[in-house]
Every structure is written in C-alpha cells, then in structure tokens.
Design brief:
The protein has about 120 residues and is mostly helical. It has one domain. It contains three helices and no strands. The longest helix is centred in the first third of the chain and has 44 residues, at about 5-45. It is elongated. The chain starts with a helix and ends in a 6-residue tail after the last helix.
Length: about 120
C-alpha cells in the first residue's frame, strides 16, 4: 500500500483527468449546438417558405447560421482557455491543431451556408 501522500497525488492526477474529459464534453456540446443551429438555419429556408414572409426567413436563417459560427468559435476558445491549469493529467488531450482545422472548416461552411440563406431559393423548385 502506498503512502497517503502518493494516494493524494494520484487523486489529484485523476481529478485532472476528469477535468480534461469535462472540457472535451463541453467542446462536444458546443459543436453539437453549432451543427444543430447550422442545420436549422439552412432548413429554415426550405421549411418556412410560403409560411412566413421572405425577409423573416432570411433573418431567421441568418441568425441561426451566425449563431452556429459563434458556437464553433467559442468551442475552440474555451478549449484553449479552460481556466486555471490543473496538475498534469495522465491522458492526452485532443491536438490543438486538429481543433483549429476542424472548426476553421466549419466556420467556412457556415459562411457558405449564410450566402445560401441570403441568395438561395426558398421552397420547392
């Protein structure tokens, strides 16, 4: 059996591991919310045609798509600024470069979707 100090150190490292997992769950939640807002913004164009005026469709779709961009940006910002540094965990974090690339591509997709909401056709062809 290890000394009480070793056990306390191990509990501290396990707490750091849990902090990393919590940060990853938070990142995933921001991504889920962003993807849902993106799909809703794009879908608003087709689903709301002939239900509400065109300017409201464009406004609704734009707000949802811009909110998805906000979610993708905040997901990375929060991942890079998790708060006070924990002790060094045993587990590996998701590579920062990968997060930047994935979220950067998603921001580009949201910009393209925003143009689709603004200039695309509403409803069926």
């Amino acid at each position: 059996m290890g000394s009480p100090l070793d056990e306390a150190d191990r509990r501290t490292v396990l707490a750091a591991d849990r902090t990393v997992y919590a940060a990853e769950r938070t990142y995933a939640a921001w991504m889920r919310t962003g993807l849902t807002a993106l799909a809703s913004g794009i879908g608003a164009k087709a689903l709301l045609a002939e239900v509400i005026p065109e300017f409201l469709i464009i406004l609704t779709g734009s707000i949802l798509v811009l909110f998805s961009t906000f979610c993708f940006v905040i997901a990375v910002v929060r991942e890079f600024r998790p708060g006070p540094p924990p002790p060094e965990p045993d587990i590996r974090r998701i590579p920062s470069g990968l997060l930047l690339v994935v979220n950067g591509v998603l921001v580009i997709v949201t910009i393209a979707a925003l143009f689709g909401v603004w200039f695309g056709r509403s409803g069926s062809v």
